[in-house]
Amino acid sequence: MISTSDISNGVNFKIDDQIFSVIWFQHHKPGKGGAMVRLKLKNLRTGAIIETTVKSGEKFEEVILNKKKMQFLYKEGLDFVFMDNETFDQIRINPDHIGESAKFLQDNMEVDILFYQDEILGIQLPSTVILEVIYTEQGLKGDTQTGAVKPATLETGAEINVPLFINVGDKLKIDTRTGEYVQRV
């Protein structure tokens, strides 16, 4: 069991037989009454994000997730096919378990598959990936300091905002957790 004092980003626990991961938390002490903890949680089974408030000192059943390194092979129909790097067994994962991570999946990319007991809960990508820009409006020469952005389509089909000086063919480092441009490489 974990208490509200043990909560930090990335901690996993059960509420009403659902498994949640903490995305954001804040301890709050109002002027009147007991302390509380505000939570932003991601349901690892459905992908839904909820916000809730719990009383300080409340206890939850901690959930330990297992990670297994696997390689993304290809997409077949709606399912994503991954291969275990040790046994070469292949598994299919429903797109509901992949979620927004699908925008950054590349062939042969190694990812961590998250398991709770024998249930697949999702995947964890590397924190950054390098992707090529396949479409964006023409860049402006010398416009590197304004902070203005424009949309760009990456090789995986993901659309992100990039600085004005980015052109088609540029390779970009992208933060997979936020989906944001980091730098040109």
How would you explain this protein's 3D organization?
The protein is mostly beta strands. It folds into three domains: 2-62, SH3 type barrels (Roll); 66-124, OB fold (Dihydrolipoamide Acetyltransferase, E2P) (Beta Barrel), CATH 2.40.50.140; 128-184, Beta Barrel (OB fold (Dihydrolipoamide Acetyltransferase, E2P)), CATH 2.40.50.140. Helices cover 2% and strands 54% of the residues. A six-stranded antiparallel β-sheet has the order 1-6-2-3-4-5, with no helix packed on it. A five-stranded antiparallel β-sheet has the order 9-8-7-10-11. It has a five-stranded antiparallel β-sheet with strand order 14-13-12-15-16, with no helix packed on it. Strand 13 and strand 14 (159-163) form a beta hairpin. The protein is flat, with a radius of gyration of 20 Å. The N and C termini lie far apart (45 Å). The mean pLDDT is 87.
